[in-house]
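Progress report, Aim 2. The chain analyzed during this reporting quarter is listed below.
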Amino acid sequence: MPTTANIRKESAVFKGLLLEKTGDAFSAQVKDIGEASLPLGDVLVRLEHSTLNYKDALAICNKSPIVRKWPMVAGIDGAGVVEESNHPAWKPGDKVILNGFGVGESHWGCLAGKARLKGDWLVRLPDAFTPRQAMAIGTAGYTAMLCCQALERFGVTKGQGEILVTGASGGVGSIAIAILAGWGYDVVASTGKLQEADFLKSLGAKAVVDRSEYSQPGKPLQKERWAGAVDSVGSHTLVNVCAQTRYRGVVAACGLAQGMDFPATVAPFILRGVVLAGVDSVYQPLAVREAAWAKLATDLDRTKLDAITTEIGLDQAIGAAGDLLAGKVRGRLVVNVSG
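Predicted structure tokens for the chain:
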């Protein structure tokens, strides 16, 4: 005869965005999921909010081999409250954030009402943020902070010149602008959406340039302009940014919206001493993740965060993923998964 606990487990059903694939047949649907179906993990989190990142959109639209196991609940980010824990760091009632660690790729993700996760993957939600605000930041904003910290770590100071932010109207770019402007840097935004110039200036950009200036093949070395840059685009854009970076400048690279290729020469690196700093957000150690979130809590203007955030429901996430890939989304999409 089933125990009361088993009955509760079997009856705990919530909504989740489930990705399924058999052969060439792919589907992305919001479905009922039983708690008993969740994968192994030592912490059960009742999620309140998640987000849509570029990687999420690729997975949901089946545009890149993001998902490594099928079926898969999408969502690389989540924020919520611990319901059950066998991990020494966490207890029921703790508010937590999840970014990365293969969640939404090889482990069921956070575009759902609940997730069972490993406690070592979690970061405590800073008191400064609500779960919604944390997901307005999400992996995109957390990555933006890691990029900004990389510029500081490699010695880029406010008096050295302008900082270029590519993909400026996207999640990483918009938050990077807000962070760097808040720190006192002169920020230039590169975007294909010149109609968003006023919005980008409201975040702190001093000027806006057309991304078409950087998206085509260019000379190996170009006129020096940038003291530093945050690039989420990759491909020819990243190559041209490096070619325009000033002597001993720093480029923090974290994305591939234009492509994974890097058709460059070594000229900027051996003739100008340019530093190309790769920024990974998925597997950073706990101390680095905690430090980045602590810095976000103190340095990110939350009024600007509100300005770049749009909230949607879980049932809107599939359509919004297509819009994100098509470049129709400004800033950050927060998904309310608790409804």
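The mean pLDDT is 94. The radius of gyration is 20 Å. These observations will guide the mutagenesis work planned for the next reporting period.
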